[in-house]
Amino acid sequence: LGNSDMWHPAKGGERPMDFSYFNAVLKSTSFPPYDPWFAGGYINYYYYGFVLAGTPVKLLGIVPSIAYNFILPTWFALIAVGAFAIGYSIVEDKTLNVERSTFNVPLISGLAASFMTVLLGNLGTIRLLFNSFQRIAAPGGLVPVDTIFFQKWIWAIQGLFMSFSGASLPIGPGDWYWFPSRVIPAPNDVEPITEFPLFTFLYSDMHAHMLVMPITLFIIAWSVSFVKSRAQLTRSEWFAMFGIGALMIGALKPTNTWDLYTYFPLAAIAVAYTLYRNSVVSLPLFGGRAGDGGWLGRALVAVSAVAFLYILGSLLYAPFTYWYGQSYGAIDPWKGSHTPISSYLTQWALFLFIIVAWLTWETREWMASTPVSRLGKLRDYVVALEVSLAVLIALLAFFAVEGVRVGWLALPLAAWAGILILRPDMPDVKRAVLLMIGTALTLTLAVEVVVLVGDIGRMNTVFKLYLQAWMLLAVSAAASFGWLLNVFPLWRMRWRTLFQSGVTILLMGAFMFTLTATSDKISDRLTPPAPRTLDSMTFMNYSELWDGKVMELSEDYRAIRWMQDNVIGSPVIVEANCTEYRWCTRFSIYTGLPGVVGWNWHQRQQRGIFASSVQERVNQVGLFYATPDLEQALNFLKKFDVKYIVVGQLERNVYPPIDLETDGFAKFEEYNGKYWNAVYRDVNTIIYEVIP
Question: Which of helix, strand or coil describes residue 38?
Answer without folding.
Answer: coil
